[in-house]
Design goal:
alpha+beta; Pseudouridine synthase; Archaeosine Trna-guanine Transglycosylase, Chain: A, domain 4; 3 domains
């Protein structure tokens, strides 16, 4: 079995839990995932099966959409409501929630949460936190394409953003901008790339054989796909000549994706990942 599953992760499961259960359901060990969701978050999780695990580095950098809610009054170590409260403050009334959110649209510098998998000197931030080791968090360049208020009473909003954007950090920073403390109180990932939550299937649906397995070729459709000949050169990982303006291409044989090649110099391309 080779391909990609669009899973609707439910609350209480880690992304690793989903992979563990799918290994049993599908009867295969070769399963991975892209774009970790925290245990209390729900929504779209991209799961790769079989040979599709090899394309993980080539599908990660995709835009995402979330629906989140913000709770004012508390600051937590993780910037969400499910972790230790480290500070409280009386709530300052919010005059214009939408105006606050719009200040975060565009390319911004973001400070990641302390409870996150961002690596500093080879160690993840949450590991520093658990060991009470102080560490300076670097600001990261992220991009928010659009934010829409869905409910001003519960401070719920929809956000379309680039890969690597932490919604928890947005919630923390929105609260700070308003003169408050605050953290994220709910999170649903509603879209990853071209896949929406309506296409996602629960673990139970997958166990009931109610799912679609997306093939590797369609998952790499954002790259130019070339039927190169002689294809034997590609199977042997040889450098080849290509007349294309793109620096990275997918080489195919019929419906089979054989390899991903990238420009080495001029018209010479080298293999960066064999997929057969």
């Amino acid at each position: 079995m080779d391909g990609v599953l669009i899973v609707k992760k439910e609350e209480g499961y880690t992304s690793h839990d989903v992979v563990f259960k799918l290994r049993k359901i599908l009867g295969t060990k070769k399963i991975g995932h892209s774009g970790t969701l925290d245990p209390n978050a729900t929504g779209v999780l991209i799961v790769l099966v079989g040979r599709a695990c090899k394309i993980l580095p080539f599908i990660e950098d995709v835009d995402k959409e979330y629906i989140a809610s913000l709770e004012f009054g508390n600051q937590t170590i993780s910037d969400d409501i499910w972790d230790e409260v480290i500070a409280t403050k009386e709530i300052v009334p919010i005059a214009d929630f939408n105006a606050l959110l719009q200040t975060f649209v565009g390319k911004i510098k973001q400070l990641p949460p302390m409870i996150s998998s961002i690596k500093i000197n080879g160690k993840k931030l949450y590991e520093y936190t658990r060991q009470n080791i102080p560490v300076e968090r670097p600001l990261r360049d992220v991009e928010v394409y659009n934010i829409e208020v869905l409910d001003e009473v519960s401070y719920t909003f929809k956000m379309h953003c680039g890969s690597g954007t932490y919604v928890r950090s947005i919630c923390r920073d929105v609260a700070e901008l308003s003169g408050n403390l605050g953290c994220m109180s709910s999170l649903v990932r509603t879209k990853v790339g071209k896949f929406t939550i309506d296409q996602a299937k629960t673990l139970q649906q997958i166990e009931d054989n109610d799912y679609q397995l997306y093939d590797i070729k369609s998952m790499l459709s954002h790259y130019e796909q070339i039927a190169y000949t002689p294809i034997e050169h590609v199977y042997h990982g040889k450098r080849i000549k290509l007349d294309t303006l793109n620096d990275r291409v997918v080489l195919i044989e019929g419906d089979l994706v054989v390899a991903i090649y990238e420009r080495e110099f001029n018209t010479t391309f080298k293999c960066v990942r064999g997929l057969f």
